[in-house]
Amino acid sequence: MRGWIAVSAAGIALAASVEVAPLGTYKPAERRHWAFQPRRDAAPPVFPDAAAKAWMRTPVDAFVLEGLRKAGLTPAPEASRAVLIRRVTYDLHGLPPIPEEIAQFVSDKSPQAYENLVEHLLGSHRYGEQWARHWLDVVRFAESDGYEYDTHRPDAYRYRDYVIRSLNNDKPYDEFLREQIAGDEIDPANETLVVASGFNRLGPLRKNAGNQEVASSRTEVLTEMTNIVGSAFLGMTVGCARCHDHKFDPIRQSDYYRMQGYFAQTHSHDVIRATPEEQAAWQAQVKPLEAEMFQIRRKMRGATEAEKGALIAKLEAIDEKMPLPLTALYTVKDDTKEVTPIHILTRGDYRFKGAAVGRRPLGVLLPDGTPEEALADPKPRLALANWITEPSNPLTARVMANRIWQYHFGRGIVSTPNDYGRMETQPSHPALLDWLANQYVAGGWKMKPLHRMILLSASYRQASRSPVEKLAMEKDSANKLLWKFNRRRLAAEEIRDSMLAVSGRLNPKSGGRSVMVPIPQDLIKDLKRPQYWQPTRDKSEYDRRTIYMIYKRNLILPFMQVFDSPDTLMSCARRDQSTHAPQALELLNGKLSNELAEALAARLASERTGMRERIDLGWRLAAGRPPTARETAAGMKYLDEGAQDPAAFREFSLMLFNMNPFLYVE
User: Fold this and answer.
1) How do residues 643-657 score in pLDDT, each as one tens digit?
2) Spatial distance between the Cα atoms of 404 and 394, rounded to a whole number of angstroms
3) How far is Cα 428 from Cα 413, in angstroms, rounded to an integer?
4) What's the whole-model pTM score?
5) Is 81 in contact with 110 (CB distance < 8 Å)?
6) I want to staple 431 with a disulfide (CB 3.0 to 4.6 A). Which of 42, 251, 616, 618 is the partner?
């Protein structure tokens, strides 16, 4: 059998008295859903007419043009070069191009100018920083536990840096995925792989001084590990089957727990990197506190409810004294002596155990009667990863190819990128999705060739306005068929990074420990352990790219929050994009925007002498184009009227940060 179907015939080592869940069967109708079908060997449509041939630049365009013509629509004209360079630079780097780069590209008459630009952008380390942010959203990366205690994870940055390096090196996606699910099983001596398998610990972790129910905590950990594999890699909401059979998709509750079985022997593991002296000092500090907490927990066993409240307060007071964890690699390890028995849980409650199960992939993608495997195994997660990355698995390549498409066009071919189930939207271009997925696999699961195929297409190069806008809106208001390019507002990180870049303050340093910036005391005092929020000593670090800022679950930086930075408790497949008054208030009155507006004003004054020249440079930096005559006149009028006010140029610079040409990419 193919690797993704073949499963060992070994049974489950369970006591005879334990009821074992039956494997179950699937109706033909359940298996007919398009996402469960093998990918079609789709070929780009052929057009005999000269107009079509003249417009198309890559095979992608043939699929898009076919959809447009069926709907009686035509593509928009090509965007100007100034628009294109700003669009593709933000797309791949999350930063604005500098005026000199724009001028050089616009004046370059070479027919390969755009192709050369794309290659240059893909070859920069800034590419990994931008696209890592997308991946970190999907896997809900954060540097603290979340929930009430929100314990800090000071070495979680290592996983972030692993993702950035992997993307810059164009690591094959199947390898990238296997390393994250099972890096420690592949080679426990390889530090890169050990860090990669920290993926299994990215989820929020509930810690409560008064609730030390081990079985409950273990169930939550296994749930987090299982759910993220379903949503991130398979594009399926397997977590919906934790409490009951999935309401819409053919995922049985038994399927869910069989998937969970791959993690039954997986346990958290910190590979300490502190010196022996640091470890000894840490242990001397921690051991007395742990001994004291142990004694209090013993007293809680027979305590009344009133007494428990007082004891919990004591536990929390001691917990406040705990030092930060030692420097370590956050990862996982297998322990075949500590294999958690996996049972179907009634309503997902660990206290109500049903039939026992072994481990097995999703049944709807297997022949009926495919047997389970034993829970205890030397490398169970690697077996799961190999099944997921088998080229014939119908989900994996589709899901990732769709994510890449979404981040380029603002909308996926499947508009619900974490959910390919029956109740979600149908693909707008199903043949194109299969073709892209096939190209992805045939190209060795590398992302950059797929980027090129999309970025060099005529579909991507369209203007964001169409001459037939009214007609097109009547037929396809959501622009699913791509009759124009989707204009978009910059993401929170892109806005902050752009203000730093335009003002001349951006610190280009890459990688390393995450940065803590000073924040208002009223935010810090609400943290469970406010003493852990210690701003980085080197103030130049505050001007680094936002991806290197600390991502703490219970404290999203205000600027990030107002511009729709996601909740890191759950996988974010696509960021919301809201427009509301607090955004304008933050840009007008916020400390960050005003400090950087002052820096931009100083830059304009140092680089240009005349008022008109400063206005021109400000627009070129912020909007990627020179101001119109009307915009120049408005700037001159404002600055002339405020000539005696030293803050006039700062206000002008602040205006640049608040205008749509800065905040939106066309």
Assistant:
1) 667 789 999 999 999
2) 17
3) 5
4) 0.93
5) no
6) 42
